Amino acid sequence: MVRYKKSEEKQKMILYAAFQAVSELGFDSVTLQVIADYAKVSKGVVHYYFESKETVLIELLKWLTAKIYKKECASIELEKSAVKKLHAYISSAFVSPEKNRTFYRVYLDFLAKASRNPVYREINQQFYDNCNAIGKEIIQLGQKEGIFDINLSAEQTAPKIRAVIDGYLIQWLMMDRDDLHKFYREACLQTVISMLNNSSFFELRK
């Protein structure tokens, strides 16, 4: 039991090292040796736990997206009303300038590869499905409370919430200004609230 725990801790340490390496150097510059250097272990140790660089990065994407989903779930479970859950969800996504910058540098590298890598695409789709479940829960609760547009389809609207969150965070990242982090978080919240209060927000001329 103790050996298994140590093995799991070592794997997490290597994944975190890979995360830091990709964030600082970029996806293509990272090798098993680079990961080993960041983890302060030998290349053989990394290879013992992971067969290849590709294996490390696949597990890294799983680990990152699962960790974020778990954190966002925990944040909304603490709240009772739909509006407070929405605030908690977006605040959890906009965690801090430093953490958002590090994550999105890595995440955007994965997305760039996902179009040609079905494994990355599948992991990312699972992440979006999980995020959509959070959005759907918030929308349906708000509709029951009478504060969100009852005509909205929770199934179709939930993915748009995550799209808005990612869009604002990516735009903030490109601005490279920590002082605008709060502004983009509040703008994101207001945009989502506008979407949920007015179904015509999504309507296009036919």
TrEMBL record:
One Pfam family per UniProt: TetR_N
Keyword check for Membrane: no
Keyword Repressor in annotation: yes
DNA-binding region in chain numbering: 31-50
Residue ranges annotated for the HTH tetR-type domain, each copy included: 8-68
SUPFAM superfamilies listed in its UniProt record: Homeodomain-like, Tetracyclin repressor-like, C-terminal domain
InterPro entries associated with the record: BetI_C, DNA-bd_HTH_TetR-type_CS, Homeodomain-like_sf, HTH-type_Tx_Regulator, HTH_TetR, Tet_transcr_reg_TetR-rel_C_sf
Keywords in alphabetical order: DNA-binding, Repressor, Transcription, Transcription regulation
Name of this chain's protein: AcrR family transcriptional regulator
Originating species: Paenibacillus brasilensis
Lineage: Bacteria, Bacillati, Bacillota, Bacilli, Bacillales
